[in-house]
Structures are given as structure tokens and as C-alpha cells.
Amino acid sequence: AIDISKLRDQTGYVTLDIGYKNTGATKSAITFLDGEQGILKYRGYPIEELAEKSSFIEVAYLLIYGELPTADQLKAFQYELSRHTLVHEDMKKFFDGFPSKSHPMGQLSSLVSALSAFYPESLKPSQTTEELNQSIIKMLAKMATVVSWIYKKSLGHPVIYPQNKYDYVTNFLYMTFGQRTEEVTIDPVVIDAMNKLLILHADHEQNCSASTVRIVGSSDSNIYASVSAGISALWGPLHGGANQAVIEMLEKIKEDGGDTDKWIAKAKDKNDPFRLMGFGHRVYKNFDPRARIIKKACDDILEKLGINDEVLEIAKKLEEVALKDPYFVERKLYPNVDFYSGIIYRALGFPTDMFTVLFALGRLPGWIAQWKEMKENKEPIGRPRQIYVGATSKEYVDIAKR
Ligand code: ACO
Predict the structure, then answer these.
(1) Which residue, judged by its Cα, is nearest atom 9 of ligand 1?
(2) In 236-337, where does DSSP find H-type helix?
(3) Which of 46, 114, 132, 235 is the most buried (most CB within 10 A)?
(4) Where in the sequence numbering do the catalytic residues fall?
């Protein structure tokens, strides 16, 4: 076997793997993923068990600190988080500056980056363990507030301040759906569903956004800048933006009369840029274990909330037809986690353009864990090489003669 570390400083040896389809960028002890067998584990625990038994904040602790918390550790973690949920009042001026219809993901990446201005201690390139931990707690705590305020802004409603009596997820739902004028009770079914969705999105090893967080952090950028970059990476429809794209696609199919065969044919047509959103995955070539959990959760939640969503029927039909079609079978294209997540978010009352922001809220512990691991491993600055294919030598022609 080749010892890659020995090749590190050698010049003239460059492997080319566009899109990093087969190239590892790091060693990681956070998430295990077997794409062939459809296995996903956080720190050794199967995703199925965590989604069933844990709360989101327990999973966040597991990802970031490496072990499931004891009851006391969880209480202390929750207490620390609740002490930092407020964001600086001046941050509200940023909200005022955005047009009310601007996309929540653009707002989120800007607002998270702006947090660095209010918490300048995070800018120190080498923080002590305690300082690093404080940055992590603040990042996690303030994200839920920022996300819910983005939602309130889109409605033109006043923001709701966090209440420390609530746990992380309940507080988030309270700030999102609560009113200043009356007491609200958040339905336990909704709290449970939100916990599950956030857990399923919490980490996914070296995906586009996590790799972005690591590479930005590797230049010693602060946690807010690194996470903001991850949010930008997540925004694209080939990554986190898929959850919004799925619902928009399903709506279109519904309006078009629900003819799934027609849309499957479009997805197969190589002259048509249309792709079946929510299908396919870079790593899962058998099935996405998160999609199985979410499909079942979707059925349960819609039933418990008494919602009959026509779009769910179209999604199921589309899945059924695609899974039998040789085009999808040969290319190993299966529904991914985002094929059903949007249907649940919609049932919980979120508008479509908030879906990717909710993905970001769920993915945050993963980004933080990846950023922390990268720092603890003292990884060198990320700096890919290239194969230059441009002109080798050109004679400069003065502008008047070009
Ligand atoms: N619909 C139709 N055809 C597809 C789809 C799709 N959703 N996905 C892949 N294909 C086809 C490609 O056209 C290609 O066909 P070809 O071999 O005839 O040229 C083949 O399957 C392989 O596709 P690639 O794009 O090379 O696969 P890659 O691993 O690079 O991409 C990706 C994976 C980006 C997820 C892709 O499957 C896709 O665009 N899916 C739709 C968007 C989506 O759902 N993204 C969410 C991903 S999960 C997440 O981020 C949480």
C-alpha cells in the first residue's frame, strides 16, 4: 500500500478525481456510511435507533463530543444552550435590510456570518478548549433563533424571543409558530416529528457542505464564517436545496394532472435537463436508510395530524414506477432523504422556501463536529491541486492591436 502521508510534500504527483468521487480528504470518527448496504451510523450508533430513541440535542451532543450524554450531561448541555439563545439586538437591523421575499438561505448564510461581528472572541485562530466550546454552544443556540426569526420576517410578524423553560426543539417551534398575543401549545406530535427530521439530517460525512465547512475552517476561519460557507454549499438543488425542489416538482406534477409516467419519461430523456428531484445519491447505491425512516414517519405524522396530502400519493406513485424502471434500476437511483422530508415540513406548517433552512438547522451539529475534528486533528489547510489544460505560452498583444 502507498503511504499517502509520504507523498504529501512531493511535487509532480497529482491524482485527478473531478468531484472527489473516490478521493478521501480526511480521516474521521464521526459518521460511518456504507453506500452499498445502506448503512448510516453516527459515532457507531445506527441512525434507525437514534431517530427512534433520541432527541435532536442528544444526537448533537453525540456528534460533537463523541459519546451519548448521561442525563446530567444532557441537562448541563441544554442549560448552557438556553443561556445563549438570544441574539444581539442589533442583529435585527440586518433582518430589516432584506427584502421580505428574499430567499431564507441567502438570509441565513449572511446572518450566520454576521454573528462573528457580535461575538469577536470567536475570531481567535487558536482558541482554548473552553473558548472553542463556548463558540460551539453559541453557534448552536443562536442558529435556532435566527432561523425562526427569518420565518417571522417572511410573514411580516414581530419576532418571538426564546424562552429558557423550553428544550431546544420546542423553543425553536415556539419562536417559529408562537404569537406575542397569546399562549401557544406546541403539539407533541410536531415536536417529535421535528426531532426526527433534524436527527436524520444531522450529519452525512464528507458531503458538499461538510467538506466546505472543513476546507474553510482549515484556513483558521472562525466558526460562523465556516458554517456560513456550509450553508451556501447546502443551498444548491443538487444538495440541500433538493427538498424544496422536490415539493415544487410534485406540485407541478399534480397541476399537470398527476401523470407520473410522463415525468419519469422526461427524467430519462437525455435531451431534457429535468431530473427526478429527490432521486439518486452520490454514495448510496442501494437505498438511503434515512429515506426508509422518513417515508414511514411521513405516513405516521400525516395520519396523526389528520392531513390528507395529495402530493404524498403522487410521491408514492412516482417512487413505485421509478423503482421498476430499468433506467433507475441500472443507475441505482433510489429516493433519498429529501424525497419525503418536504411533505412532512409542509404538514408541520412550513412554507416551501424554508425547507432548506430547516435542513441547515439539522445539519449544524454535523458541521460543528466536522469543524471541531478538523481543528483537533490539526489538519493542514485544504488546497487541492489541478491539471492545467490552458495555453502554455502566448504573446501579449497590445489592446489597440487585438
Ligand atoms: N433523475 C434522472 N436521472 C438521474 C438522476 C435523477 N434524479 N440522478 C442521476 N441521474 C442519472 C444521470 O443523468 C446519469 O446518467 P448517465 O449515466 O446516463 O449520464 C447517472 O444517473 C449518474 O448521475 P450522476 O449525476 O453522475 O451522479 P452523481 O453521483 O454525480 O450525482 C446527485 C448524485 C447529484 C444526487 C444526482 O443523483 C441528482 O442530481 N439527484 C437529484 C437531486 C437530489 O435529489 N439531490 C439531493 C441529494 S441528497 C442530499 O443532498 C441530502
Answers:
(1) 280
(2) 242-255, 260-268, 289-304, 310-324, 326-330
(3) 235
(4) 281, 338
Of the candidates 33, 14, 55, 6, the residue with the CA atom closest to the CA atom of residue 365:
55
Whole-prediction pTM? 0.91
Distance of CA 269 to the CA centre of its chain: 30
- Among protein residues, the one with the nearest Cα to ligand 1's atom 17 is 331
| Complex confidence, ipTM | 0.94
Cell of 40: 448510516
Q: Residues in the chain with pLDDT < 50?
A: none
In this predicted model, what pLDDT tens digit does every residue of 112-140 receive, in sequence order? Answer: 999 999 998 889 888 899 999 999 999 99
Alpha helices of 119-222 — where are they, by DSSP H?
129-155, 168-177, 188-200, 208-217
Helices 242-255, 355-376: crossing angle, 10 deg rounding: 160
187 alpha-carbon distance from chain centroid = 24
Ligand 1 pocket residues where CB is under 6 Å: 238-240, 242, 267, 275-282, 331, 333, 336-338
Angle between helix 56-65 and helix 355-376 axes, rounded to 10 deg: 30
